[in-house]
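Reading a protein record of the kind used here takes little practice once its layout is understood. The fold follows as a row of integers, each naming the local backbone shape at the matching residue. With these conventions in mind, the following record can be read line by line:

_____
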Amino acid sequence: MAPTLYMIDPSPPARAVMMTAKAINLDLNLKEVDFFNEEHLKPPYLKMNPQHTIPTLVDDDGFTIWDSHAIMIYLVSKYAKDDSLYPTDLKKRALIDQRLHFESGVVFAYLRRIARPIVLGGQTFIEPKNKEGVIDSYGFLDAFLEGRDWVAGDSVSVADFSLLSSVGTLARVIPVDETKFPRVVAWLNRCQKLPEYEVNKTGEKAMADFLLSKLE
């Protein structure tokens, strides 16, 4: 039986997990959460995940885990045929971990600060400080990419899937200035050519289009 992923397509963390699963040829049983009817706040979901975050993974033996980074690492560690997406080499892994923490603590944090008041509060603008923070994060990412094609080395890792899910969405709302951040633009273009991008692009566009439709 395939692991079950409770998800919504626009969710960047869910898309990061889906890209990882595709990369390791793992079929997932996808269950769409009825977010706007607050299914994630109802007792059955809270029993699985008291933090009521999306996505949540339930493996075929009942093991349950949430947080996209934890899910991606778990799936690669259990199901991948090799360790290329999350190497056992300590230094390579540490670099990937740093990028994952950057995604959650900086990039996705800004995306959430922008999206939450628009989606749930009816806000029609982006706070200037949040826009500035996103642009700063593009600068950090551009620096990470100096001398390499992928965010944590010479090959694709779970860090690329994680950052792509957030940066790809943000870049549609707050465009990346190619003159300032050429490496980010080149990286996004490379990511869009990956086969895994197929499970990301629809949700990426849907989330960005929704946000843009609410802005004045």
